[in-house]
From TrEMBL:
This is Zinc carboxypeptidase. It comes from [Bacillus] enclensis. Belongs to the peptidase M14 family. Its cofactor is Zn(2+). The active site is at E332 (proton donor/acceptor). GO terms for biological process: proteolysis. Residues 50-355 form the Peptidase M14 domain. Residues 1-24 form the signal peptide.
Length: 802
């Protein structure tokens, strides 16, 4: 068996290192766009190897499909952000081929009738269960996809007992390259600059939607997400990392059922790795300090630590899969080389063998997750944690956010119903058609995660790995009313089958377009871009002349916005198309910090130009009306690390030119927005303002209460409203400046998340205008997630018109 395994690895390693023109029998993807030129390495990786290029993958998969009757190769209908193909390979023994629909149907029955499904397992313990393996969601973590390709080759062609046993027990679903753009460009993020492994509560990116579709299609029993590179968390004898995680655990999991198996399965992966340690080549030990041949294990956070690698936010791929009952794991290989590939391969084999040995009991516990949801029985949760339902009222004027939420819930296997008649709850009467999300359903944990208020976990743990608050109703801008677990709604309802997203244009004009959503601002910008004259009232409402009727009727067909006839107020100001330039972060610290703002601007309907720091230094800002800085302070540094150097300025002369060009832009009337802590600090360093910038910890984040003044910059928001912070910022020395918004002056201004020592920010300014410069200490466009706050940016652009 070991010799077969090593032969398989060796043959594929040889294939991977073969020049492309030798693979004449394997059709290659022609990459014509220079932005998609395949790179050989990332400077962020300390080791390098000749990994399998994206352009080689399709040919290899097609060749294996011709050779083996066990595998099916599909191109997803969904393309990556930059239009690249995504490949799904399903491997099973030939007896299951042609029966995938049957197996998917059985997985759906687990959700609809979990008790019957458990009985079925008792009678049919030989049932095949799906396992999903996700390759290289971070493009620079090349080993994941390479391990996937080796695993596919083994299960397609080998006939040893371990291979046959695993195939008898499982259907293996491989998402071969979860991030094609990142693999091609050697970046962590996708072509839109989004870290896909932070996108699973939002699902803003096509690659994420593709993965969600696979998870909801198959409801896999085990989900393995293949990453790198973790070397030293466990000390020299325990390279790499395998979950389960440290606390805090998200309270919406049925964590007892996960924990029953997770540690044992993780240790089975560990054992598989260690048992093969003699086979590792230690290719980069001198550089990496990883000695595979003498390893004793790997770092398992829940076993080996107390905090710091948590599974609290539902933004990570395996954490999201856990809401679908999967036993989800992140696997972090130690090194970026073929030894790292083998570590990943061995870990997956350990996971699969463990799943084979324990399949029947593991799948029954997966079904138990769904049964608890359907029966509204959560024995390890505090009484009242789960409400009995959520009421999601309709908005008569603008249903954009509400309908987005309903569609999002449905896309995630969550049942949404609508009332068949008017009903009353706690003194409020809701009309027929009001949306209701009952919590006596299989995936109640995911529904509650998406709709609950969240919690302040500052005192629960020293720090968080990433965000700790994501309230969709508040951050997307719709209402979700909790129905107490002790109450039952007295209303008949039907499952929502179709959403009517058609907006309406009422009357013959002039027309009032509400400043109520991303979509409504997009409509206004579309009219401006089409040459229509638009005005903006002091309350943020947009006004169009009667001549815009035909255009509006076309635009609202794809929206849920109601446009009414209303006279244009005398105080309304005429708008013009704004040329918006955003400072581009090409990938400092492996991330594009400006990407959320860029996507928000595009969704709001603005035409956006990206300029790197070097371009701003060399070219200036041209005819830009608005310049936005939302990124790290070291974008204006010329002393960056080797890996970061290409994304910032290159020398002192460029720094002086950048500063002069930005100052000139502002002095000539340009509108400048500094969003977030890094941009605020950089702006002060540039000498643009004498405002003093204060910041919270770099891992502090969450939902806050803010107090807005009466201003065109905060139009469309309430005087008491909410914001989102990620490394929170606030300002002092604001006496001669216009304070537009502050954190609420109350001890409870922090609503949910993790923020130590936040008392120093209580009541302090968080949006400050200094001439043509606007400082925003919130993160209103965070990761294309905070839709409700996007309009703070469109307000700033329109309110600051020259």
């Amino acid at each position: 068996m070991k010799n077969k395994l090593l032969a398989g690895i060796a043959s594929f390693t040889l294939l991977a290192s073969t020049p492309l023109n030798v693979l004449a029998d394997s059709p290659q993807t022609v990459i014509q766009n220079t932005q998609l030129e395949e790179k050989d390495k990332s400077l962020f990786n300390s080791e390098h190897y000749d990994f399998v290029k994206y352009s080689q993958i399709e040919g290899k998969l097609n060749a294996l499909a011709k050779e083996s009757s066990r595998i099916s190769v599909e191109k997803s209908e969904t393309k990556s952000a930059l239009g690249q193909d995504m490949y799904v390979v399903t491997v099973s023994d030939p007896s299951a081929k042609g029966k995938f629909g049957y197996y998917k149907g059985l997985r759906k029955k687990m959700i609809k009738s979990p008790e019957k499904a458990q009985d079925f397992i008792e009678k049919h313990p030989d049932l095949k269960v799906p396992v999903m393996i996700n390759g290289s969601i971070h493009g620079t973590e090349f080993v994941g996809t390479d391990a996937v390709l080796q695993l596919i080759e083994r299960f397609a062609t080998d006939n040893d007992e371990q291979t046959k046993t695993i195939l008898e027990d499982h259907i293996l679903i491989f998402n071969v390259t979860a991030n094609p753009d990142g693999r091609i460009g050697a970046t962590r993020f996708n072509g839109n600059g989004i870290d896909l492994n932070r996108d699973f509560i939002t699902q803003s990116q096509p690659e994420t939607e593709h993965m969600v579709d696979l998870i909801t299609e198959w409801n896999p029993m085990v989900f393995l997400d293949l990453h790198g590179y973790v070397k030293g968390y466990g000390g020299p004898s325990k390279p790499g990392l395998i979950e389960p995680c440290t606390p805090p655990h998200n309270p919406n999991y049925e964590y007892d059922l996960y924990s029953k198996w997770a540690m044992n399965q993780a240790e089975a992966m560990e054992a598989s790795i260690v048992s093969n340690k003699a086979d590792y080549e230690n290719t980069n030990t001198e550089t990496s300090k990883v000695d595979y041949q003498n390893m004793e294990g790997t770092y398992i956070p829940q076993r080996d630590d107390s905090a710091g690698w948590d599974d609290y936010p539902p933004i990570f791929t395996p954490m999201y899969a856990m809401y679908h009952g999967a036993y989800g794991y992140t696997l972090e290989a130690p090194t970026n080389d073929w030894d790292g590939v083998q570590w990943t391969y061995d870990a997956v084999m350990g996971a699969l063998s463990f799943a084979s040995e324990n399949k029947a009991e593991m799948v029954k516990d997966q079904i138990e997750v769904f049964k608890r949801g359907v029966q509204f029985d959560h024995p390890f949760h505090t009484e009242g944690h789960f409400p009995s339902a959520y009421i999601i009222p309709r908005d008569d004027q603008d249903q954009t956010a509400t309908q987005k939420a309903v569609a999002h819930l449905q896309d995630n296997d969550i049942t949404v119903e609508e009332a068949k008649k008017e009903f009353t709850y706690e003194g409020v009467t809701y009309p027929k058609g009001t949306y209701i999300v009952p919590l006596d359903q299989a995936k109640a944990g995911l529904a509650n995660t998406m709709l609950w208020d969240g919690e302040d976990i500052t005192e629960d743990t020293p720090s968080m790995y990433d965000i700790s608050a994501w309230n969709l109703p508040e951050l997307w801008g719709f209402e979700a009313v909790e129905v107490s677990s002790e109450d039952q709604l007295n209303v008949k309802s039907n499952e929502v089958r179709m959403l009517d997203s058609k907006g309406e244009v009422i009357g013959d004009g002039p027309y009032a377009i509400p400043n109520t959503s991303v979509e409504s601002v997009f409509l206004a910008n579309q009219l401006i871009n089409e040459g229509h004259t638009l005005y903006r009232g002091s309350d943020g409402t947009f006004y169009a002349n009667s001549s815009a009727k035909s255009e509006l009727q076309t635009l609202v067909k794809d929206s849920a916005v109601t446009i009414t006839t209303e006279s244009i107020p005398e105080e309304a100001k005429q708008l013009s198309s704004q040329k918006v330039t955003i400072l581009k972060d090409g990938g400092i610290n492996k991330a594009q910090s400006h990407s959320g703002t860029k996507l928000a601007l595009e969704r709001l309907g603005f035409q956006v130009v990206e300029k790197t720091p070097v371009q701003v230094a060399e070219e200036g800002l041209g005819e830009s009306d608005v310049f936005i800085y939302n990124g790290r302070s070291n974008l204006i540094s010329y002393e960056n690390s080797t890996a970061n150097k290409e994304f910032g300025l290159q020398d002192a002369a460029q720094y002086e030119a950048f500063k002069a060009n930005v100052k000139s832009f502002i002095e000539e009337g340009g509108n400048y927005l500094a969003i977030g802590a890094g941009a605020s600090q950089a702006s002060v360093k540039l000498g643009l303002s004498d405002v003093e910038v204060k910041t919270g910890g770099s891992n502090s984040n969450g939902i806050v209460q803010v107090a807005h003044g009466d201003s065109p910059y905060t139009a469309g928001y309430d005087a008491a409203d909410i914001g989102f912070v990620y490394q929170p910022a606030w300002y002092s020395n604001t006496e001669n400046k216009e304070v537009l918004s502050s954190y609420k002056n109350s001890e409870d201004f922090f609503m949910a998340g993790h923020w130590k020592d936040r008392g120093q920010a209580q009541g302090k300014p968080v949006m400050v205008k200094d001439g043509n410069i606007l400082f925003i200490g919130l993160e209103p466009t965070f990761r294309d997630h905070t839709d409700y706050l996007f309009r703070l940016i469109s307000n700033a652009i329109f309110a600051g018109l020259k």
